[in-house]
Amino acid sequence: MIARMGAGPLRRLVVLRHAKSAWPAGVPDHERPLAPRGRRDAPAAGRALAEADCLPDLALCSTAVRARQTWELASAQWGTPPPVRRDTRLYAAEAADLLDVVREVSPEVETLLLIGHNPGLEDLVLELAGDGLDDALDEVRVKFPTSAIAVLAWYGTTWRTLTPGAALLTSMIVPRGKKKGGAKG
């Protein structure tokens, strides 16, 4: 459990890297869709968030096709998906830019889902996590692969007060969907 340090409610920033994308010839990077594995892994990410009781109050999603498809497939696993905002600033963003977008979120939002791309997401998680439970921080340092989910928890009155090192990385998971026939993919 996270020690109570700071004022305000417990807030969680759930960081989801888009699922595995395809590389079709002649398709611009922003327009690349999910690969078959990504179409299996994105719903698994949605199920993992539900099982971990990490359903967001709001989702912020990159405008890239692969990120939007990840959101659609993941959120379809929930009874009532939360509102989603597609934000062009999340595409190819660096950690500082991602944090600026997060800091704009309304204080009413206690659990925020951020769907985007590496290396920005990985860098953001490492910047915000002052510590981690178990070996979650080491796992992120090694690799933050497609469909990876990092959950950062902290206490704060507003998102504007989120600062580097202020959060606890409570978990890092990499959900994978199953291929037909039950084999892992």
Account of the protein in words:
This protein is of the alpha/beta class and 185 residues long. Helix content is 28%, strand content 22%. It has five helices and seven strands; from the N terminus they run E-H-E-H-E-H-E-H-E-H-E-E. It has helices at 36-51, 65-75, 95-103, 120-128, 136-142, and strands spanning 10-17, 58-62, 84-87, 111-116, 129-132, 149-155, 167-173. It has a seven-stranded mixed sheet with strand order 3-2-4-1-6-7-5. Helix 1 packs across helix 2 (65-75) and helix 3 packs across helix 4. The protein starts with 9 loop residues before the first strand and ends in a 12-residue tail after the last strand. The model has no long low-confidence stretch (mean pLDDT 93).
Topology:
Blueprint: E1 10-17, H1 36-51, E2 58-62, H2 65-75, E3 84-87, H3 95-103, E4 111-116, H4 120-128, E5 129-132, H5 136-142, E6 149-155, E7 167-173
Parallel strand pairs: 1-4, 2-3, 2-4, 5-7
Antiparallel strand pairs: 1-6, 6-7
Helix pairs in contact: 1-2, 3-4
